[in-house]
Amino acid sequence: MSKTEGVPTDRGFLVGIIFFILGLGTLLPWNFFMTASMYFNERLNTSEWRNGTVSNRKEYYFNNWMTLLSQLPLLVFTLLNSFLYQRVSERVRIGGSLVLILFLFILTAVLVKIPETMDQDTFFSITMATIWFINSFGAVLQGSLFGLVGLLPQRYSAVFMSGQGLAGTFAAIAMIFAIASEADSKTAALGYFITPCVGTLITLISYMLLPRLEFARYHLNNTSRGYELETSGELLPTDSTDLLEKTKEGSNGSMLNMSQSNGQRAEEDGKQAFISLQMEHTLSSSKSSVMQVFKKIWVMAFCVTFVFTVTLSVFPAVTVDVRTKYTGKWEKYFIPVVCFFLFNVMDFIGRSVTSVWKWPSKESRLFPALVVSRVLFVPLLMLCNVQERQYIPVFFDNDVVFAAIMLFFSLSSGYCVCLSMTYAPQLVDAKDAETAGALMTFFLALGLSVGAGLSFPLRLLV
Question: How far is it, in rounded angstroms, from Cα 120 to Cα 130?
C-alpha cells in the first residue's frame, strides 16, 4: 500500500465504504420496523368473531408503542454510555450488538410464518420486547461507532452519517419492492424481514474486515495521540528538552569559568521554568464543566430537542394512518411512497444541503424561531385524511396536499437537525467540542423520546 509521509492511504476508499455500510446498519432496525407498521397493524387490528357476530376489535396503538419503545432505549443507553465504554470492550459492544440484532431480526422473520391464529396479545408482547431489545443494542452500536469513526479523519464521519441518512430510504425501497412482488402478504413480509437480516450480516462482516486494512489499523490503534499528559516529565515537551540541552552545551562552551554546581542549578531552574509554563498552558486548556458548556449551547440543545419532538409526535404514529382517496393499486403504495419514502429522501436532502448552505447563522435569533415554527406541521398533518378519527374533521383529503406537507415537514426536519448539530460545537472552544457533541446527542435522544410520548395523546385527539 502506498504511503504519504508515513501515513497509509485508504486504497479504493475501502474504509470509507465500510463505515458507510456501518452507518447504514446502525439505523436499519428502527427504519425496518417503522416501515413495516402496515404489516403489524393488519395482523394485530383484526376483527374478532363471537357467536356469529363481529365484536369490537382491540386497538393496540402499535405505531405509538413502536415509536416509544424504539426511542426510550436510545435515551437510556445514551446516559449509560460512559459506564459501557469503561467496562465493555469495543469488539463486544459492536460485534455483540450486531450478532444480537441479527438474531432478533431472524426471530421477527420466523414470527411471520407463525399462523395468525396465534394469540394477538402474545404476538404484540413478543414484538414489543423485540423492538425494545433490538433498539437497545442499536443504541449501543450507534454510540460505539460514533466513537470509533471519531478516530479517523473528519470526512469519514460525514460518510458514516450519510449511511445513516440512507437507512430509511433503503427500508422504504425494500417495502415497495415487497409490495410490487405481488406475493401473498406472508411471503412479502418474510422477504421484507429477510432483507435486514442480510444487511446486518454484511454490516458484521464489514466490521470484522476493518482490522485487516492498514489505514484502519493506523488510525484506530493509534489512540495515544491525545494531548493529555499524565506525568510531570511528560509536561516538558521534547523540543523544550532539546532546547535546554543546547542551551546547556552553549553555556558550557561560552562560560567555562562557571562551576559545575552552578550549571546544574541553572539547568534545574530552566527545567522548572519550562515545566511551570507548560503546566499553566495545560491548566488554561483544561476542559470546561458540563454546565459551562451547556450555557453556551443551550439554544442549539433546545432546537434539536424541539425538532425531534415535533417530528416524532406525528411521524409515523399519525402520518401512517392517512388514507388515499383513490382506490386500486395506488392504495397499497400510498403510505410506503408518500409517507416513508418521501420523508426519508427529503430528510436526507435537508441534511445534505447544510454542507453547502447554512442559514440562518448560529448567532441569529431567526434560527430558533424557524425551529419553533415547525409546530404548525402538527395540526396540518392531523387535519389530513387520517383514519379512523373521532374528533377532528378532515380538512385536507387530497393526496397531493398531504405529499406537499410531508415534503416540507421532512425537508425542514433534516435541515434544522443537521444545522443544530453542526452549530453546537462551533459555539465552544475546541477543547470542549467533544463535551458539546455528547450533550447534543443526549438532547437529540430526549427529543425523540418526548416526541414518541406525545404521539399517544395526539393520535387520540384525531
Answer: 15
